[in-house]
Amino acid sequence: MNRRGFLTGSVGTVFSAAAVAASGARRPSPKHLKAVLFDAFPLFDPRVVVTLAERLYAEKAALLMQAWRTRQFEYQWLRVLGNRYVDFMEATEDSLTFAARQTRVDLGSEERKELMSAYVNLQVWPDTHDVLPRLRELGVALGILSNMTAETLESGLMSANLRGLFAHVLSTDRVRSFKPDRAAYQLGVDVLGLEREEVLFVAFAGWDVAGATWFGYPTYWLNRLGAVPEELGVSPEGTGSDLRSLLSFLQARAA
User: Fold this and answer.
1) How far apart are CA 145 and CA 182, in angstroms?
2) What pLDDT does residue 30 have?
3) For residue 36, which phi and psi values (nearest 5 degrees)?
4) In a shared domain, residues 103 and 54
5) How confident is the model at residue 255 (pLDDT cuts 50, 70, 90)?
6) Which residues span the domain enclosing 51?
7) Whether residue 180 has a cis bond before it, omega within 30° of 0
8) What is the SS3 assignment for 123?
9) Catalytic residue numbers, as ranges
10) Which pTM does this prediction carry?
11) What is the DSSP secondary structure assignment for residue 86, as one 8-state letter?
């Protein structure tokens, strides 16, 4: 499996789409947008994790990454459903331990440390520095709503000299849950003090598009890796492969 396959592959079947949709799915009516909430990965490039795994494990990296990616999501969602919450980093490390055992990869302490530290040292995508200030010029507040820990998000933004562009940096750890739980998306509404229809949610993954749309956010899928759309009964209001496409979408909507 290549990098794209790992990053856009299966995210598990822990949640029933019908059950989540039944909890309040609706299509937002058009409203003036006052804020844009990003998932972390439209801004931060996660491919460094795959690159590191390939350096450490060569031909075994693909199997390790597939198992790790799948369990990473499943462990988060299972813990929410089972009321046994741990934060993103702990769930990620637990899933790495399982994946290494399942794929019979020798995961020593140094390899474990390197792979986990990759999440703490994510770099932003090349277009981020150029486009984010232009989004702010449209008069919308910018924020992040991510399953990652607040420490990781803040560290990444500070390293990239981007923290000052964001009014709010929100980790779902604050509500001890993970997207697509409605409580996770509600965090954005509560902190921003806006109606959900006034907040555009920018997702990296197709399942996050579905979760945010079910909640009631207008959504934009920043599909950087060309993933196949999920079959979950909803679609975003816009789709593009980079931040410039998002800028054009917002400019057209404001016209």
Assistant:
1) 13
2) 52
3) -125, 120
4) yes
5) confident
6) 47-117
7) yes
8) strand
9) 39
10) 0.87
11) -
